[in-house]
Design goal:
Number of helices: 13
Mean pLDDT: 93
Low-confidence stretches: none
Largest sheet: 8 strands, mixed
CATH architecture of the largest domain: 3-Layer(aba) Sandwich
Strand order of the largest sheet: 3-2-1-4-5-6-7-8
Number of domains: 2
Structural class: alpha/beta
Order of helices and strands: EHEHEHEHEHEEHEHHHHHHH
CATH superfamily of the largest domain: NAD(P)-binding Rossmann-like Domain
Number of strands: 8
CATH class of the largest domain: Alpha Beta
Distance between the termini: 54 Å
């Protein structure tokens, strides 16, 4: 295990392959008073953006095309490229034994950085549970959870402090837990967006296109998110599954299956998987719970 010098806000940091995620994290660390020495990206247009938005407004991180140049300037190095490229990026750099190398991927095990470990560097992961729609998304880190992992206790402590100083909170994770953690994130984000898309498409027989229907659904979605935040589960769940409206569930299954078999299966699978949470409210009798299950289970197989 590498011997890292005293880690603090003045520790030199590099962000390699800085796209939307890396640029946002670099900006957030600079705003929090951390010493970002260098940021790299192979694309000239991205480097120009970084020069304008980071280097000119903070105390001068070097903007470079070469990952090795950036890595040489820092003690702690964040590799923020796509999951599929992280192992290759790491393997292409000559590491020192006084460095820490981190990736910011959700599902990728830390073993993807084994080429750095082989050179004596410490390795770990630092994944913000958030989406980054643009490289200027550093303000999205408030209240965010950061999944952290490290083979060095000093590095692990530094990552905990970093997560807190960026406005979020750390949660320790092991590589073997990452697939479940990341699947949860996808379900709460990408699949929710896809589910809303399906809900919006159900308005087409009403003569309302998906884009217009989405606008009409947004207030309901916002209210649901607010309820999740303010009341938690199971109270935020509403609808026929909470009340035990068997006839309503049956009509929904008939309607969604008429639209398409995939839509029907999606409705049934989601309802069945979450039925136990709806039951926690106490308004769903054992009899209606079983009746609804008997409707949903075969619907998934259609």
């Amino acid at each position: 295990m590498s011997v890292l010098p005293g880690l603090n806000r003045q520790t030199s940091i590099t962000v390699i392959a800085a796209g939307r995620l890396g640029s946002s994290i670099a900006g957030a660390m600079l705003k929090a008073g951390y010493s970002v020495a260098a940021v790299s990206n192979r694309r000239a247009d991205r480097r120009e953006w970084l020069s304008v938005n980071l280097a000119r407004h903070h105390s001068g991180p070097v903007i470079t095309e070469k990952a090795q140049t950036a890595a040489d300037l820092a003690t702690v190095v964040f590799i923020t490229g796509p999951d599929s490229a992280i192992e290759e990026i790491c393997a292409g750099i000559k590491w020192r034994d006084d460095q820490a190398v981190l990736h910011c991927a959700g599902v990728l095990p830390v073993s993807a950085l084994d080429s750095a470990l082989a050179h004596g560097a410490s390795t770990g992961g630092f994944h913000p549970l958030q989406t980054f729609p643009s490289p200027e998304s550093s303000d999205r880190l408030k209240d965010v959870s950061f999944a952290i992992e490290a083979d060095n206790s000093d590095l692990l402590h530094w990552l905990k402090v970093l997560a807190t100083n960026l406005g979020g909170s750390p949660v320790e994770i092991e590589s073997g837990q990452r697939a479940a953690y990341h699947a949860s994130a996808v379900m709460a984000c990408g699949l929710v967006a896809g589910l809303v898309g399906l809900a919006a498409e159900m308005w087409e027989p009403l003569g309302v296109d998906r884009a217009d229907a989405l606008k009409r659904l947004i207030p309901l979605i916002r209210s649901t998110v607010d309820s999740l935040d303010e009341q938690g589960l199971p109270l935020a769940i509403t609808g026929p599954f909470v009340r035990g409206d068997v006839d309503t569930v049956e009509s929904h299954l008939e309607t969604t299956n008429r639209i398409s078999p995939e839509m029907g299966r999606a409705y049934a699978a989601l309802a069945l998987a979450s039925l136990h949470i709806a039951r926690e409210q106490g308004g769903l009798s054992d009899e209606n719970f079983e009746r609804i299950k008997s409707l949903l289970s075969p619907a998934i197989q259609r």
